[in-house]
Design goal:
Structural class: alpha/beta
Number of domains: 3
Strand content: 15-25%
CATH architecture of the largest domain: 3-Layer(aba) Sandwich
Order of helices and strands: EEHEEEHHHHEHEHEHEHEEEE
CATH topology of the largest domain: Rossmann fold
Length: 280
């Protein structure tokens, strides 16, 4: 087993990988040089060869980002609200004779009013949005903090992070309470934007709220729409595989299991954020 340090593009401070040779193939002089070259283009990967099924396996890929501020999505990043979200949208869809599975699949990571407009343009979206919001506030069963969320927020300075969520403010406050996570000083919610994710507007407003340039912000997201929003805003994005499969999160700079894979500290006015990225 070898530990390799890789000097990489300026977006990262350091990259570390553990390479474990496969059985009966300990010596592979090409792995190290190929890994160095490939790392300039791809942030994480399995090391493979065409001559054998698997020559070496990347066990983990440690990435260190530097940023001045962190922007967190809420549902699927700080808390697991999937059971509640899907229950509410299935009930609402069935009431309007829509496909419950299809509607529920569209609801993650978007403002509810935009989901309603897409699946039922004939309805009064503003009226239905109020109904859905109250249903979501009332349904708290299964809303729990995700691993590492409370610990990470507690270690960050209040003026260096914000929540940027597609939920309304009353719903965000309710769910944070159900999960036992304190409401932070800075939040951007559905009411604060004209266009929700995947538009860059939510994250641009989050950066402006904290007083930092978009390029100085690091985003944690769990949905393709949220990752697209962050990238369109010119920000680095780390995806959590809590809601969607890895193959739908490829636009992110890194993919992790949850916030338990993240450590952050303030050093000389920069947040140094270390993540244990999963391989593809």
């Amino acid at each position: 087993m070898r530990l390799i340090q890789i000097h990489s593009p300026s977006i990262y401070k350091q990259l570390w990988a553990i390479i474990l040779p496969a059985a009966n193939y300990v010596q592979n002089p090409m792995v190290s040089s190929w890994l160095h070259a490939f790392a300039w283009v791809h942030p994480f990967f399995f090391v493979k060869t065409s001559r054998r099924p698997v020559i070496s396996l990347l066990l983990f890929w440690k990435m260190i980002f530097s940023a001045k501020a962190i922007l967190f999505d809420m549902d699927g990043v700080l808390m697991d609200s999937t059971p509640s979200v899907e229950r509410v949208w299935r009930i609402w869809a069935a009431k309007h004779e829509l496909d419950p599975e299809h509607v529920a699949s569209l609801a993650h990571g978007r403002r509810s009013i935009e989901t309603i407009r897409e699946v039922a343009p004939e309805l009064n979206a503003e009226k239905e949005n109020i109904i859905v919001e109250q249903m979501e506030i009332d349904d708290k069963e299964g809303v729990t903090a995700l691993p590492g969320a409370a610990r990470l927020l507690a270690h960050l300075p209040n003026d260096r992070f914000a929540i940027v969520t597609s939920a309304t403010r009353p719903l965000a406050v309710a769910r944070l309470g159900y999960a036992g996570i304190p409401v932070p000083q800075h939040t951007i919610t559905a009411e604060d934007v004209s266009h929700g994710k995947p538009s860059p507007e939510p994250f641009l407003k989050g950066a402006a709220l904290l007083g930092f340039a978009p390029a100085d912000c690091l985003v944690f997201e769990d949905t393709p729409a949220g990752i697209s929003s962050a990238r369109a805003a010119g920000m680095q994005a780390v995806a959590l595989r809590t809601t969607y499969p890895v193959d739908q999160l490829q636009a992110a700079h890194a993919i992790i299991r949850n916030l338990a894979d993240v450590k952050a500290k303030l050093r000389e006015q920069l947040l140094i954020v270390e993540v244990d990225s999963i391989p593809l």
